[in-house]
Amino acid sequence: MIGVFDSGIGGLTVLRAFLRSLPECDYLYLGDNARAPYGNKSLDVIYDYTRQAVEFIFERGCVMIILACNTASAKALRKIQQEWLPSRCPENRVLGVAIPSAEAGAQVTRHGRIGVIGTRATIESKIYEQELLKLRDDLNVYGLACPLLVPLVEEGWAGKPETNMILKKYLRHMKSKKVDTLILGCTHYPFLATDIERIMGKNCRIIRGPEVVAAKLKDYLCRHPEIDKRVSRQGRRLFFTTDDPGRFRLRGEEFLGGKIEGVEKVDLSIF
After folding, report:
1. Exactly one of 25, 62, 146, 186 is catalytic; which is it?
2. Where are the domains of the chain?
3. Is the pTM of this model over 0.90?
């Protein structure tokens, strides 16, 4: 089974891409909705929340976890991989979403001017800038925190005039930098992608994380048969949330693009 973790429901966009690319695999999705968003929290808090989620997911039988949350990928992934995983579950894997998107951005940029939008924690971590410059040291990378966008998407305000007005104000900075590639560094942003593309114009390429991460997951399993053979393939989908299951299902079905059955509420504080 493959685990997908996010601070809320945005990671369902990643799961949606996985279901298209690898539909036969079993998946467990966990949304820490009660404590979302992670973007404005401290490093220690983000790590502790992520560690709790990882422990819960592995206890449920998953052999690998994708941290669909960009903030968790930026602030907690490395410590999970280097300190927690080797002593607790050395045979399992925890992967993030930042590196695949950075690789995609570096490949498609035409003039080496790449913008990244995300939560405050993701942008302040400079994870995308670091990964992009590892790939190409000639790039110009511009990060911009957009803290208002996640709650707007969570509340179903994508596409509304008020949201587009805020988007225009945020993206004005990227347009002034003449970026030719824009990485959407948050799982919620694909719901704003059409408006972002319109505002940025046809000369700016938009990197949508879910599709990129799905392709990388498929490639990863091909290159690591020792993990691939342990992934169960019965088409099961399990959903967990730390908040109200009914609300999760109602909003989550829009993000997933399909029905969600049997959402279970969990308490991560015991881990």
Report:
1. 186
2. 2-96+211-270, 98-209
3. yes
